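From the shared-data thread, chain only:
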Amino acid sequence: EVSALVRAARTARGSIGDVPAPWLWMTLIQSCWYTGERIGSHLRLRWGEVDLRACRITFLGATRKDGMTTIVRAISEDLARQLGHQRRADGELVWPWMEHRRQSTLFMMFRTLCSRAGVTPRGFHAIRKASGSYVKAGGGDASDHLAHVNPRTTRDSYLDVAITGQQSALDYLPPLDLTGPRKPR
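Structure, as tokens:
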């Protein structure tokens, strides 16, 4: 679904300030996917916090939900290249939606984009949940990826069993060896 969203974003029209709409949507969706970070943090991200060479983004604690914890997240080389096409001054917002539009219009436009992509509109938070779920399914630490202090938050509210699968102790226990000698009768 995320791939379909990015493909649909290529057809977006117009601009947000001086930023082409296709670029904004394609890069914003990919960054949400790769980093697992909240949309609010993305909308406050400035170019000085993006290292295109090292392919990483630093989300400052002051711009994150908890207001304290700074996190660094990797992005793909392809996304870094795409971001580089619109690189502006360090103090400028990467995705300047809030400078030109209201936040509510972001969510309305995202729903429209979902419809064009043939994807059920679930909001940006669904991308965050899917990102964490795929990290978990691949053997990674979803709580760390999502920067949750309490792993229970991740387990109870974020992981999608359709992605991670339903796990039981049998998935981890070694099989019993029952081939030894039998007790006489």
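The CA atoms of residues 121 and 142 lie 23 Å apart.
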